[in-house]
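pinned: reference chain
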Amino acid sequence: MSKPRGKNTAPALHISVLRPYQLDLTPGKPPMIVCPNCSRWVMPIRFPAGTFVPVHRSDDLWDVKVRDRAQGHRPRCGESWREVIFDMTGEQWAEALHHDTCAVRYRRGSRSAHSRKPRSFED
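pinned: its structure tokens
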């Protein structure tokens, strides 16, 4: 039984705790989640010991290929190698996503449109 080399002592992340827009459980595609710590989309890695958030870096320079050796390695995200528990099916996710987007659609705007102050008529 192979286990990931890293260690994360944080409790397991249940995907039902995340908001529907922070998941992608589209059928036919690999599952994707948003890292709760750094808000980066990651694809959980499956091992016989469980499913884990892969090692990723926490800054926004993830696409830079050449790095300055004097700076060293970028810091690893604190959520790396955290166990992920899939306690929601793709159908449940799609229903929750539909319900969440419908709720957003009917919210009132935060900015009010004020009408002009009526003029007073003096006789």
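why pinned: The chain has one helix and seven strands. Strands lie at 13-14, 23-24, 32-34, 41-42, 45-47, 50-52, 83-85.
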